[in-house]
Specification:
Blueprint: H1 2-35, H2 41-52, H3 65-102, E1 115-118, H4 125-133, E2 138-142, H5 145-151, E3 157-159, H6 165-170, E4 178-181, H7 185-196, E5 202-206, H8 213-219, E6 223-225, H9 227-241, E7 250-251, E8 256-262, H10 274-277, H11 279-283, E9 286-292, E10 295-298, E11 311-317, H12 318-328, E12 337-341, H13 345-356, E13 361-365, E14 374-376, H14 382-387, E15 393-398, H15 403-416, E16 421-426, H16 432-438, E17 442-445, H17 446-459, E18 464-465, E19 471-476, H18 486-489, H19 491-495, E20 498-504, E21 507-510, E22 523-528, H20 530-539
Parallel strand pairs: 1-2, 1-4, 2-3, 4-5, 5-6, 12-13, 12-15, 13-14, 15-16, 16-17
Antiparallel strand pairs: 7-8, 8-11, 9-10, 9-11, 18-19, 19-22, 20-21, 20-22
Helix pairs in contact: 1-2, 1-3, 4-17, 9-13, 9-17
Length: 540
Amino acid sequence: MKPKIDKLVSRYIAIGTSLMILYSLIFIYLMGEFEGREFSIVTAVYWVISTMTTLGYGDIVFESDIGKIFSIIVQISGVMIFFAIIFPLIVTPWIERKIQVLLPTRVPKTMKNHVLICGYNALVETLIDELRARQILFAIVDDKEQIVRQLSKDYVCVYGDPSDDETLKNSNVDSAQFLIANMNDEENANIVLSASKLTDAKIIALVEDMSIARYLEFAGATRVLSPRKLLGTRIGQRAAVSLSDETIGEELHRDLKIIEVPIYANSPIAGKSLAGTMIREKTGATIVGLWQDEQLMLNPAPNTIIKKHSVLVVVGTEEQLNLLMKVTSERRRTVGHFIIAGFGDVGNQVAETLQSKNISYKIIDKKKIPGINHVSGSSTDEKTLTEAKIMDASTLIVTLNMDSENIYTTLIARKMNPHLKIISRANYERSIDKLYQAGTDYVLSLSVVGGQMLAKIIFGEEDITLAEGFKVFTCSVSRLLAGKSIEQTKIRSRTGCTIVGIEHDELFIPNPDPSTVLPEGATLTLIGTLDQIQKFKCSL
């Protein structure tokens, strides 16, 4: 930046000097030719400077019209040069310095054992929610002024280059517990190199290309992770599961899974109340949430009416959930080809996962991909989907970089093929409900997957956070709860948490009946949001 300013200053000085010499010569000529007066070069320079700077002492003035016109030209050019120099070289830098002073450039000196997040984006949103809920100190370091200005309203932030030693020192990196490098691969390498010599904290680098992992480890990273690769793998695994009789779902604990069940217009339970479906009585599964009207209802009331295009969030064993699918869903197409919409980092990993399971697929992408069954174009275009034979497909996997395109692709595909199984990527957690509303069967969020990955390293493996915002956790039955039935404890009505399993004397009871008595020393498996879990822990 400084060489550019020096070059600009030199240019303005050269222009100003040239004009001053030219105007001085013209002044001498005009005064002699039209005014009949002669002046020395020193007087000419004196007149030019006083006129260009608009001081105008009035001791030397033109009386002829041409002289007055020349005086106006000198004054205007002087003002233009003056403002051209003052504003970009003095006023503007001064204003920028004042603005930067208002941005936070260091964390409190008392902050220790904190998590330092270098680079803010969707990947760390879920992690930040986890850290706040657990009341664990953290700070965000970013060199983007707008991001820091916005985030600093709610979080501890540092404005500066995360790879700069001084910025890291101002972030108390020497006393941090974890440092997360969350910028592009090249910047992350610089962050790791700088941080590794300043701190003993565990350094976690998030990368797009796992082939460079060894370089970051050599630079000093404790762990190198690729959320996009993990997201692609998990999407591919879920798509592959849909070919079998297994239920797509998140593994919770032992025999328990949690699944999302889309309710279509021709579903036998559409229009019924939750109590009227008798799902618990018929299947043994427990409804813990309901996506409806673009929001998630936790532990919905029994009289809640299930609308078409809503999504049930249900916990149960494999057997219970298979029964549930028969009760709630129409028969879906199981024969047909797979389509992957978008062949970036995530789509590429999905393809590799499907290929490892000998599943053929067709790619839709704007760029040409040699050697692959490929349709060139946008998946948001009905003609492109028709060319990919969407009507004959069994599964569509949407992995585009923009959530708006994922949502629009889902809307078109669902309209064209109502029986299609659709699995979609969400880049931001806030897009999950819209994707379900659009007709997606299952959504995996980059933010949630990345947050889960980081949370498991920072907090350990004992808790599982799910895409819907639920968390699964375990605890021992206290004396306060021992001897009471689940119904008598009123845990669900008081805290919002749901008991989904009891383990005692090496026996695990999934989805226990409300009349089940809790034995002292047994281990409970519960599901709830972070806030609900806090209420439960406070009630013990």
